[in-house]
Amino acid sequence: MTLDQLLEKIDALEGRCPKLGHQVAFGYCRRETGTLPCPRTLACWQHRFNAELILRHLLTPEQWDAVFSTAPKTRVDSLLEAIEAAKTRREPSAQ
């Protein structure tokens, strides 16, 4: 089996995304931002296969650091950011 074939099989694996609240394929997690993986990818997939090994092979050290050097935001932090963004969008139209 070639690396491309293995990656195709792994990309098709599905799991529940705690961020989105439904099933997603690993391929989505691997390219969530278009080119970079979701920062939660390791936590979500490491129990099923060696996601770190695969991502370290696919990403440059700079890409790895950009994604995984900081801890992912908690749900509370994400919600607070969404609330602040909604307030900001609402304020100009309220005047």
Key descriptive features of the protein:
59% helix, mainly alpha, two-stranded antiparallel sheet, 2 strands, 95 residues, single chain
Secondary-structure map:
Layout: H1 3-12, E1 14-16, E2 23-25, H2 26-30, H3 41-45, H4 51-58, H5 61-68, H6 75-94
Antiparallel strand pairs: 1-2
Structural account:
The chain is mainly alpha-helical and 95 residues long. It has one domain (3-94). 59% of the residues lie in helices and 6% in strands. It is built from 6 helices and 2 strands, in the order H-E-E-H-H-H-H-H. The chain has a two-stranded antiparallel ribbon with strand order 1-2. The protein is elongated. 12% of the residues are buried.
Query: Going across the major beta sheet, what is the strand order?
Result: 1-2
Report how far apart the termini are.
62 Å
Low-confidence stretches: none
Mean pLDDT value:
89
The number of distinct structural domains comes to 1
Q: What's this entry about, in short?
A:
The protein has 95 residues and is mainly alpha-helical. It has helices at residues 3-12, 26-30, 41-45, 51-58, 61-68, 75-94, and strands at residues 14-16, 23-25.
